[in-house]
């Protein structure tokens, strides 16, 4: 075996194997990447079945080689690929949810804001902004992805819109289905809007209840 | 906990075992981590590793630096390794005699290189750069081979000996890799050990291999880390430590990971070999 031929064959997954043993290396490369996707998207694998999942993952691995040896970050764009390569209409959003779960799992640590810091005077509410835990994200879907994430193929009422809050407390990653009003409030806060502006025009908004939720969930890490 | 790793048996740290380890605190010399699995910013992996580090020494084992690569080392990756080294104060740090990055990115496997004066220079430059950046000695691990290159002008053991002489790196001897490579290349593992600079070995790896057929229908051993250590590899391990004396020894299992108790049983077997070696030396 010549080195140049080996390198060419590794770089081009579609090329002919230059050696009877070459397939071991090519298989290892593919297996490593498929495994990284399986670990990150376990519910998608369950929904598709291991063979169908591996088939799509193999195509993705061949066309989307990782840029970095840190495979924790591999497959950020896999949900789009899954969505384009499967007939399950909710699979893309379900995988987006799994991707957020994974990012939340590995996100930086940050201690929560002390509860007494939420005692803000009306004037402070006009300008104060919350900084959220690095793990926090919101995903809105036309499908009941929280239900599907929990129950897989046993999920009911699949065609029901759901908005999910993903974040990590000290203990572990949390997924909560949230109301539309809460989602709008949190999204505005996460975008860096001052609290009063995030509340919006709704007349019956219960700010105290929202603050209790933020404190209990350890979602906020700083006031700015 | 002290960072120094003594001549006892350790296990590869798997996320599946985090809780059992902290609850049971098994009697082990150390845990080894794959550096890349701890390059996330935070969260449970670091929380568990911090707790485990309080009870055990840690060995830091990189799989993505591409020491044998043609291009320059990835400075950002080296900085990530350095950060882990500073944070967890591992007793040993090792990487592979292999390449894994290319112009197109990371290839996800430990790929082989020919052993020539050119690759020797390249490997030595990369090890020196790594040791300088990390501020410590690196151990170089011998690869598992499935084929050999026509260009090679050194034997592997000779290449490794010369690399260590030029760079001052230490060695991680993977006994399963020696066995797998010898079988696949039709050479003799005992001759390999005889040519290998055993005096520079600071750590040993033991793992299971799988057997398959290659595309020509020939039997082939794969360094799969998916099964218990093979009896022939245990024999070769006994042969090695009878010459080196006891060394930190890692049982590796990265696929089809069984319950912790199964791996502890294998660790006990390695411990028994190590304590027999101590008695023989006494």
List keywords for this structure.
heterodimer; A: 224 residues; mainly alpha; 11 helices; B: 282 residues; alpha/beta; eight-stranded parallel beta barrel; two-stranded antiparallel sheet; 9 helices; 20% strand; globular
Question: Could you explain how this protein is built, in words?
Answer:
The complex is a heterodimer of chains A (224) and B (282). Chain A has helices at 3-11, 22-40, 42-48, 50-63, 78-84, 91-106, 122-127, 145-151, 180-190, 195-199, 207-216, and strands spanning 130-132, 137-141, 162-168, 173-178, 220-223. Chain A is built from 11 helices and 5 strands. The N and C termini of chain A lie far apart (62 Å). Helix content of chain A is 50%, strand content 11%. In chain A, helix 3 (42-48) packs antiparallel against helix 6. The longest helix of chain A is centred in the N-terminal third of the chain and has 19 residues, at 22-40. Chain A is mainly alpha-helical and 224 residues long. Chain B has 282 residues and is α/β, with parallel strands linked by helices. Helix content of chain B is 41%, strand content 20%. Chain B has an 8-stranded parallel barrel, surrounded by 4 helices. Chain B has a two-stranded antiparallel sheet with strand order 5-6. Chain B has a two-stranded antiparallel ribbon with strand order 10-11. Chain B is globular. The A-B interface holds A 1-3, 6-7, 10-11, 17, 19-25, 28-29, 32-33, 36, 65-72, 104-109, 134-135, 168, 172 and B 36-37, 39-47, 63-66, 74, 77, 80, 100-109, 111-114, 146-151, 184, 212, 214-216, 218, 220, 222.
Instruction: Work out the strand percent of chain A.
Output: 5-15%
Quaternary structure: heterodimer
Specify the structural class of chain B.
alpha/beta
Classify the helix fraction of chain B into a percent range.
40-55%
Helix segment tally of chain A: 11
Cα Rg of chain B: 18 Å
User: Structural class of the helix and strand makeup of chain A?
Assistant: mainly alpha
């Amino acid at each position: 075996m010549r080195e140049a031929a080996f390198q060419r064959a590794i770089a081009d997954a579609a090329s002919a194997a230059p050696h009877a043993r070459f397939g071991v290396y090519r298989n290892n490369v593919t297996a490593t990447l498929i495994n990284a996707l399986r670990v990150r998207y376990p519910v998608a694998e369950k929904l598709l079945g291991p063979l169908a999942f591996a088939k799509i993952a193999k195509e993705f691995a061949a066309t989307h080689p990782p840029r970095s040896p840190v495979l924790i970050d591999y497959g950020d764009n896999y949900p789009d690929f899954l969505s384009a390569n499967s007939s399950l209409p909710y699979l893309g959003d379900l995988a987006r949810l799994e991707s957020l779960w994974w990012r939340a799992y590995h996100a930086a640590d940050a201690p929560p804001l002390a509860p007494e810091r939420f005692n803000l005077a009306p004037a402070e509410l006009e300008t104060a902004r919350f900084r959220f835990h690095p793990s926090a994200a919101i995903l809105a879907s036309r499908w009941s992805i929280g239900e599907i994430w929990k129950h897989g193929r046993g999920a009911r009422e699949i065609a029901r819109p759901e908005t999910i809050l993903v974040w990590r407390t000290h203990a572990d990653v949390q997924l909560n289905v949230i109301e539309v009003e809460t989602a709008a409030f949190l999204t505005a806060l996460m975008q860096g809007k001052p609290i009063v502006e995030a509340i919006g025009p709704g007349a019956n908004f219960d700010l105290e209840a929202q603050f209790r939720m933020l404190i209990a969930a350890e979602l906020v890490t700083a006031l700015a | 906990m002290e960072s120094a790793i003594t001549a006892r048996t350790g296990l590869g740290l798997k996320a599946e075992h985090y809780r059992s380890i902290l609850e049971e605190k098994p009697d082990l010399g150390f845990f080894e981590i794959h550096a890349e699995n701890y390059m996330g910013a935070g969260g449970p992996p670091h929380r568990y590793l911090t707790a485990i580090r309080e009870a055990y020494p840690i060995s830091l084992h990189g799989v993505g630096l591409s020491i044998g690569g043609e291009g320059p080392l990835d400075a950002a990756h080296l900085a990530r390794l350095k950060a882990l080294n500073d944070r967890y104060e591992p007793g040993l740090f090792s990487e592979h005699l292999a390449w894994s990055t290319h112009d197109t990115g990371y290839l996800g496997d430990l790929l082989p290189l020919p052993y020539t004066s050119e690759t020797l220079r390249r490997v030595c430059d990369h090890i020196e750069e790594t040791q300088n950046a990390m501020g410590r000695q690196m151990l170089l691990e011998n690869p598992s081979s499935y084929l050999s290159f026509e260009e090679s002008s050194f034997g592997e053991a000779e290449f490794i000996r010369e690399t260590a002489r030029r760079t001052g790196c230490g060695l991680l001897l993977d006994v399963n890799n020696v066995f797998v490579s010898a079988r696949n290349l039709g050479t003799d593992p005992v001759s390999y050990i005889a040519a290998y600079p055993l005096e520079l070995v600071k750590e040993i790896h033991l793992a299971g291999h799988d057997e398959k057929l290659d595309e020509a229908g020939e039997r082939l051993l794969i360094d799969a880390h998916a099964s218990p250590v093979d009896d022939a590899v245990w024999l070769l391990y006994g042969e090695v430590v009878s010459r080196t004396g006891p060394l930190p020894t890692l049982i590796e299992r990265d696929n089809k990971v069984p319950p912790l108790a199964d791996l502890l049983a294998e660790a006990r077997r390695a411990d028994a070999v190590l304590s027999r070696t101590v008695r023989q030396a006494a």
